[in-house]
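ingest -> validate -> predict -> emit
validate: passed (alphabet ok, no gaps, 239 aa)
predict: started
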Amino acid sequence: MEIQAYFKILWKRGWIIILLAAITAVSAYGFSKMQTPEYKGSVTLHFRPARADWGLQNAAKGLLPSYREFITNDTTAAEVIDRLRLDMPKDSLLAKVTTSADEATFAIQIDARDHDPKVAGDIARIFAEVFKEGQDEWNQEQDKRDQVEVYIWNEARIGLFKPRTKINTLAGGIFGVMLGVVIAFFLEWLESDIVRTAEDVERHVGVAVLGSIPAITSEEAAPVRARRKRRWAFLKSFK
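emit:
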């Protein structure tokens, strides 16, 4: 099939694509507005080895996974609940918290989610503070040359985590367009065996069409039917 034929199909059934895109986009927008907003608070921890030693720096990199585990363990969660006086079990709190490490910058980001933006920020901040206090205590027991200092790099950054109304609406519209295109070509495929034009005849039969019987309208057919009725009445009069 030529590209022009594809464009012809899309132009012919474009209303289906537009309609489905509108329906899916509006549905995605409505679904997003029905969701309860959830916010995310983020705090970044940076680590600095006591000396610029290749071995110590690599050891610090290797410790990042264990630091992440320490941040999100039950002991830290219990301390956060106690300080913030949260009315929730440790498992529920830990389900709100995620961490990610960046070995290139010796950093760990703590993210906390909650329906209250202030609570989300407080949770991330207290997790960072509890971890820093624990690391500071650990450093006191180490030789100064082996210490790994930790710094709370920023105040809690708070932003909307979900729903992403614009993204959801755009995704819904794109899905509607794709679905509309599929349906348009499917309908065209269902009607592919129906002969409507001389081109359809040539395509199916493989022979050039030299002529065609023109279709007549109901107004043009009325006199013909009238003449047939008069002729039939005349013939019946001889019986």
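The CA atoms of residues 21 and 175 lie 7 Å apart.
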